[in-house]
Automatic annotation (TrEMBL):
The lineage of its organism: Bacteria, Bacillati, Actinomycetota, Actinomycetes, Kitasatosporales. Pfam families: Tectonin. SMART domains: TECPR. SUPFAM superfamilies: Fucose-specific lectin. This is Beta-propeller repeat TECPR. InterPro entries: Beta-propeller_rpt_TECPR, Tectonin_beta-prop. Keywords: Lectin. Belongs to the tectonin family.
Amino acid sequence: MWGVNAASAIYHYTNYDANPWINIPGGLNDIGAGADGTVWGVNGGNQIFRYAGDQGASNPWTHINGSLVRIDAGSRTNVWGVDSADAIYRYTNHDANPWIKIPGALSDIGAGADGTVWGVNSGGQIFRYTGDQDSANPWKNITGGLSRIAVGSRTNVWGVNAAGAIYRYTNNDASPWINIPGTATDIAAGADGTAWHVNKNGDIFRYTGDQPS
């Protein structure tokens, strides 16, 4: 679990709630963490970075060519982002030519460890990527309205709407969303079912609704 604060400082969860966060050198505006430990981020200048601090590098961030405003990493090989014009890019797994443009327009995107990808556009419409199944129409519109979306896996998809309401995917496209109590401005979902969110005040919450009260 990783996050950035309003000053673009970067934090990594320690797995110890009594002292939960360790500051990581650097400055980022958005960050995405995969189930395998992969971490990518973008800064205020839309520059893209991949975390290499676990590999002994003197600089914990490797700069990757390109320009993005939002990024998410489901795994080392499933990294997606959107740029300031809402264009969609997928990582090629080759740093020398890192990005392939995917048809469509999104303002936020979420990528899961299993290859699942969802996104929302500037109008709040929700889409699930199907380009690996139907190249002619790579995005399937899903009923609902969200401004932020997060994907841990095919069965762990969460979102937040413009009013701050929180929704979890039901795994049924006919009735896709269930409202979860609380308000948020951004949300994150893990492959193991974990979900975290932050509210407009910067307060941090971890979901425990799937555990006995």
